[in-house]
Amino acid sequence: MNKANTVTNADITAVFDRVADLLEFTEANPFRIRAYRSAARTISSMIESLASLRENSTRTFTDIEGIGTDLSHKIEVLLETGSLPLLEELEASVPPGVFAIMRVPGLGPKKAKILFEKLHIESLESLENACREGRVATIRGFGEKTQQSILDNMAFAKSDQHQRLLWEDADGIMQDVLAYMKQSFAARTVEGAGSWRRGCETVGDLDLVVESDDPTTVMNHFAEWNGTTVVLLRGDTKMSIRGPRETQIDLRVVTHDSFGCALQYFTGSKEHNVLLRSRAREHNLTLNEYGVFDGFQASETSVPEKMSVNVIHAEKGKWIAGRTEEDVYKAIGLPWIPSEMREGRSEITLAEEGRLPRLVQLSDVRGDLHMHTTATDGENTLEEMVQAAIERKLEYIAITDHGQRVTMARGLNAKRLLNQWGEIDRLNDSLSKHGKPAIVVLKGIEVDMLEKGGLDLPDNVLEQADWVVASLHYGQSQPREKITSRILEAISNPHVSVIGHPTGRLINRRQAYDVDMLTVIQSAAKYGTFLEINANPWRLDLNDIHAAAAQKAGVKLVISTDAHSTQGLRQMRHGILQARRASLASQDIANTRSLSELRTIMKKRTRIQ
Ligand code: DGT
Ligand code: CA
Ligand code: CA
Ligand code: ZN
What we know:
Layout: H1 9-25, H2 30-44, H3 50-55, H4 69-81, H5 85-92, H6 98-102, H7 109-119, H8 124-132, H9 143-158, E1 165-166, H10 167-182, E2 189-192, H11 194-197, E3 202-203, E4 206-211, H12 215-223, E5 230-234, E6 238-242, E7 248-254, H13 259-267, H14 270-282, E8 285-288, E9 291-294, H15 309-316, E10 319-321, H16 325-331, H17 347-352, E11 367-368, H18 382-391, E12 396-399, H19 414-431, E13 440-448, H20 459-462, E14 467-471, H21 480-492, E15 498-499, H22 517-527, E16 530-534, H23 544-552, E17 557-560, H24 572-581, H25 595-601
Helix pairs in contact: 1-2, 1-5, 1-7, 8-9, 13-16, 21-22, 23-24
The structure holds 2'-deoxyguanosine-5'-triphosphate, calcium ion (CA) (2 copies) and zinc ion.
The site of zinc ion has 5 residues, from loops.
């Protein structure tokens, strides 16, 4: 936990989630557990920090949906002291090892509690011993299968590496397994679902949905995949394996009539599904993973896995839809909703009102405005980067090597930078020798926002640039006010075009620096400075929530690869996914414009030729 004066929304989210886990372990009232979970979720997606909301005398925490007086008080205490007595009490009442047990795949607070009570299991070691001795299988609700699956997961649970995969890594595995599953003659359609299909920054496990009349053959094929290291679970129509990089892959085999519904269900998110199902109920329909049915409302858990769809038809009223996702959404009066938007935020309302945006796509991108060369820490020369960009059919790029503050990367001083710009002038001349050039190369720079304020290159140099990215690489642990003021200063500098990777986080590796994003966004809107969505799969900032807030405030976003090699130019697709998760359309993104249009929407457009 941070010091009291820097308690962030992420800290409060983590505390509330942990409280919910512990309450579940102690079998507290389910409503109370849900209150903490939903508060955690709400706070994690808030753009405004609770710390700054507290300063505002006209508003209170209870204005936030799902925050009552009790939770409001707890937030107050957390902000004031940096800790929460309730959490400390709960932690004291639970042996520390049970957290590790809760995290074993397939277990959770409830099962950890049973193991603790019946077998006094309070560490991974005692859990492993109990499984080996066959004691876990004797407990009601566990059985041989669960016991074996715990053992199979033990190495995984013990390793420190059970971090969620970056989307890019998950995608690599997903493409392999999709291609392989499509080779099965028994598989009619094969699709990836879950967080992978929603384009989430990280992915916990992979989910596959296959349409087939012959699940056994499909599942045998899955078991024989050379990526399969262990089969964790196998039923009549569902199966889980552990695959490459210890990643779990869940497979569902469904019939023709259920395919669209199953794909919809397993794409999620859970929150989106819950909202969709209650909407179905309002229309007197039942929606589950098997189909949309007329009338009769049953809970999904009452449907045994092996029950055939025909039996379900008979029990649940008339089957109405389920073959395609379009059919499913249509049956409950909605247009199809793009998977990246399905997070239970406002997508269903937008769909209902016919206001779904036409989301930006990769083919809309016309330029890439952040990349490096061998002049600093890139792997390829200026000419190689330009050639690769031409091959990618980009109309313009900006070369943005590091400024001199980044000594590690041999950052450019004014002299070297002006030299590079001379080279770029000559390159553009030769490109346009035979008429319309294949690409226009903009003279850019990635300047550093210095620890003490200011930039690492003087204004009289920057004013000669076509494009200036300002980034913060040093002094990331400075207090919020200091970091924020460094960024605000850059935003108001007339030569700065865009703020690069505005939060500095590296997914799974480094927290974002502490910054008042609401103020940053407001200031960017005021000065007409763009904000970047950095497409590097470790960065992906602005994230979806910040980018959506920026768009609403009237800020234009720039999606850039920050490529450090010609290969790096391919990462644009990750930035596009993040933008789609932010519900952004092509017109919200500056580099979907032609160069002349880009020039007209830039505040400081003095130099672009
Ligand atoms: P992950 O794997 O943690 O990255 O995230 P997801 O979203 O892929 O989650 P996963 O694999 O547990 O489940 C896939 C989808 O299945 C999920 O997005 C929605 C659906 N689903 C799973 N469990 C439930 C549930 O308890 N209720 C509802 N309504 N849907 C669920
Ligand atoms: Ca998943
Ligand atoms: Ca799953
Ligand atoms: Zn860069």
